[in-house]
């Protein structure tokens, strides 16, 4: 695990974009793992700038980390919509090249199995982008998630619903259930880029990076990942 601390989130976005650009220009069929939340925003903006400068993403395939259950198609906070808005369209990645778990599927466990298989069939994820929740979650693997878990339905805990309520009109509108890649799925990516910014993430980052490897802090899987880069602004690194 390498830890890189830079003054601002804009600086960490540039380093993350360099890693992704390297992948995209050297591989004929790169596979990206995409995250939602506000943290990767500066990275997606930096990639968009590079795309406008000539970097092509036309040959990229991508898999999303997670999705809410029960939001109707087209709901602006459905992660499939967020990724289309923030990544797929600005980078001109073909729509069909980006997949996520379908939170409207009739049979959710079967959908999770299909999704896990789709990642395997694509040859696995080359570079996985991830944020960290204030309670140490990664994707939607809440504290207590098995370290070897695969894509599956999960129930959100109160803190995560509260944290994510800022994207919805009220707390009641935040879904209670989600589908998420498991810690085992994320652990199989070839390079994990974990980004965090702001003081609100400092405790979670310290637990993930310096605490024990433990299900109580799912993001602590960075410690055992074969190639993890933790990119922090100074505020997020302030408790290391
Ligand atoms: C959500 C997402 C996570 C993300 C987390 C942190 O719960 N499922 O993938 O890392 O929020 O979000 P933010 O970056 O907005 O703090």
From TrEMBL:
GO function terms (MF aspect): glucosamine-6-phosphate deaminase activity
Gene3D superfamilies: 3.40.50.1360
Family annotation (InterPro entries): Glc/Gal-6P_isomerase, Glucosamine6P_isomerase, Glucosamine6P_isomerase_CS, NagB/RpiA_transferase-like
Class of this enzyme: hydrolase
EC id: 3.5.99.6
Residue ranges occupied by any Glucosamine/galactosamine-6-phosphate isomerase domain in the UniProt entry: 15-229
Keywords: Carbohydrate metabolism, Hydrolase
UniProt-recorded name of the protein: Glucosamine-6-phosphate deaminase
């Amino acid at each position: 695990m390498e830890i890189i601390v830079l003054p601002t989130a804009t600086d960490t976005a540039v380093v993350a974009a360099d890693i992704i650009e390297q992948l995209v220009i050297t591989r004929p069929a790169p596979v990206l793992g995409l995250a939602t939340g506000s943290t990767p925003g500066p990275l997606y903006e930096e990639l968009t700038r590079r795309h406008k400068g000539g970097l092509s993403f036309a040959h990229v395939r991508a898999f999303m980390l997670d999705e809410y259950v029960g939001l109707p198609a087209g709901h602006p906070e459905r992660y499939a919509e967020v990724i289309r808005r923030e990544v797929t369209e600005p980078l001109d990645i073909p729509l069909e090249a980006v997949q996520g778990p379908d939170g409207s599927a009739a049979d959710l466990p079967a959908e999770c199995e299909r999704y896990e298989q789709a990642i395997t069939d694509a040859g696995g994820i080359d570079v996985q982008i991830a944020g960290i929740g204030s309670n140490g979650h990664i994707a939607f693997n809440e504290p207590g998630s098995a370290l070897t878990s695969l894509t599956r339905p999960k129930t959100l805990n109160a803190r995560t619903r509260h944290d994510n309520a800022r994207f919805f009109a009220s707390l009641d509108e935040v879904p209670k259930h989600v589908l998420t890649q498991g810690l085992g799925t994320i652990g199989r990516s070839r390079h994990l880029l974990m980004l965090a910014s702001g003081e609100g993430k400092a405790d979670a980052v310290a637990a993930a990076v310096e605490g024990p490897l433990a299900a109580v802090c799912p993001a602590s899987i960075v410690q055992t990942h074969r190639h993890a880069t933790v990119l922090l602004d100074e505020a997020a690194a302030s408790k290391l």
